[in-house]
Design goal:
By secondary structure, this protein is mainly alpha-helical. It has helices spanning about 10-25, 45-60, 70-80, 125-135, 155-165, 180-190, 205-210, 215-230, 235-250, 265-275, 285-305, 310-325, 350-360, 360-375, 380-390, 395-400, 405-410, 425, and strands at about 30-35, 40-45, 85, 105.
């Protein structure tokens, strides 16, 4: 069980998380288990997961033998919260992971253990997903930042006209017999001349894989939701507006027939299937696959083309986690690929001792000079601060004042005033006491 060494530096926590999740997904043993008279394939017990992951972490140089079983359980709780693993019955958000015999399985996407079976992960653009989740209108339709990729205004007007038929309040030209057919032909011509299908060529295999889940409608809807988030925002917007018009036309009893002898629902599938899904090879089988997919989309377009709440919550938690662990450098652009950062280099013991002794003395010496030259401090305050500095940094202080005389020069002694003589002493010199003769007889 190899575990790549993740060195110190930016994003280390994220790298460790991704590395551990990748190893767990790839190597965690899965087998058949029985629970309450029912068998479950490709799963494991909570205790088995703790045993395997604990051994992996203890043998890893990124973690070491000090990792406890309790810490491993805490990590698996985060796996459950972030949908790396799931309850065998598909329950989310209510259970708590414990070291017991409860059954879990790896989180599947599109009914698969990994998207790599049907999708090249290098072609998945995370910016598309974030834009499709957050840049939407109140109706859930994607809002484009680049208006040059927007649908032409005449196509938007045509889509809105048929979607709201017969209430086309924004039409400036009068309607005539067969007007709705011409509007529909305008929309069909535009979508039929797209350079690439709305679901894109490189996502063809992923969407075809979802078709195998149509018998399980809820699972198929969730799978389509995820796949549609991979689309470029302009494709997702075009698909949303088109599917809304198609679904409304099929339910609109006031809409005259758009094609003689062909029902509206059949017409929608035949007209737009090829511009929604097809492969680069354009084989005959694509038409059957596309027809099945478009039919399912029309029936469930409101659910499929909205952002799943559970996924949005997971994205927000993931973004919050990345904001906590990543370092954003001043002036750095998130769209720019940063060069490999440089870290500490090994130095000799002599250089270390020199840096330890003198590396921090320059700013301290500058601080000492600021105290010395500060004219706002009184002599008493300055002496007090200098004594504190001398006590804390005697070496720096000794360099600035190597002798007592150099320190004395900072506070020169003021000349003492001469004591004033008493005025009476200047007028008459002191005379000793003389005994006088008594006049007493």
């Amino acid at each position: 069980m190899e575990h790549r060494i993740v060195g110190p530096g930016p994003y280390r926590a994220t790298k460790l998380w991704n590395e551990t999740v990748e190893l767990f997904r790839a190597r965690m043993p899965l087998r058949k288990h029985r629970c309450r008279f029912k068998s479950y394939e490709h799963c494991f017990t909570a205790a088995e997961a703790v045993d395997w992951l604990h051994e992996l972490l203890r043998c890893s140089q990124n973690f070491g033998p000090e990792v406890t079983r309790k810490q491993t359980v805490q990590l698996l709780k985060k796996f459950l919260k972030n949908h790396v693993i799931e309850d065998i019955k598909g329950k989310w958000g209510q259970e708590d992971f414990e070291d017991n015999r409860h059954l879990y399985s790896l989180q599947k996407i599109l009914g698969l253990h990994s998207l790599e079976e049907v999708l090249d992960s290098k072609l998945v653009n995370s910016k598309f997903i974030i834009h499709n989740v957050y840049s939407v209108s109140k109706q859930g339709v994607v809002i484009l930042d680049d208006k040059s990729k927007e649908l032409p205004h005449w196509v938007l007007s045509a889509l809105k006209c048929l979607a709201n038929w017969p209430n086309c309040s924004d039409l400036k030209q009068p309607m005539y017999l067969g007007f709705e057919k011409d509007v529909f032909k305008t929309i069909a011509d535009y979508y039929s001349h797209l350079k690439e299908p709305l679901l894109t060529f490189h996502l063809f295999d992923a969407f075809v894989s979802v078709l195998g889940l149509l018998q399980k409608e809820k699972m198929a809807v969730e799978a389509f939701q995820i796949c549609c988030l991979f689309l470029p925002p302009e494709n997702r917007r075009k698909l949303q507006l088109l599917m809304r018009m198609m679904a409304r036309l099929c339910l609109n009893k006031e809409m005259p027939p758009l094609c003689d002898g062909v029902g509206t629902r059949t017409l929608m599938v035949q007209t737009f299937s090829h511009c929604i899904l097809c492969s680069k090879d354009d084989v005959d089988l694509d038409e059957l696959l596309a027809a099945r997919l478009v039919t399912f989309l029309m029936d469930n377009y409101q659910e499929i083309l909205k952002v799943p709440v559970a996924l949005q919550t997971s994205i927000e938690e993931r973004v919050a986690h990345l904001r906590r662990v990543q370092i954003k450098y001043p002036g750095a652009d998130m769209d720019i690929t940063l060069s490999t950062p440089s870290f500490c280099r090994q130095i000799s013991p002599e250089e270390f001792e020199y840096q330890r002794a003198y590396g921090s003395q320059e700013p301290l010496a500058a601080l000492l000079e600021e105290v010395i030259t500060d004219t706002k401090l009184s002599s008493k305050e300055k002496k007090k601060k200098l004594k504190q500095f001398q006590k804390s940094y005697p070496e720096v202080y000794q360099q600035r004042f190597p002798t007592p005389e150099s320190e004395t020069l900072l506070f020169p002694e003021k000349p003492k005033p001469r004591p004033q003589l008493l005025m009476w002493a200047l007028k008459k010199p002191f005379q000793p006491f003389q005994r006088t003769r008594s006049f007493r007889m």
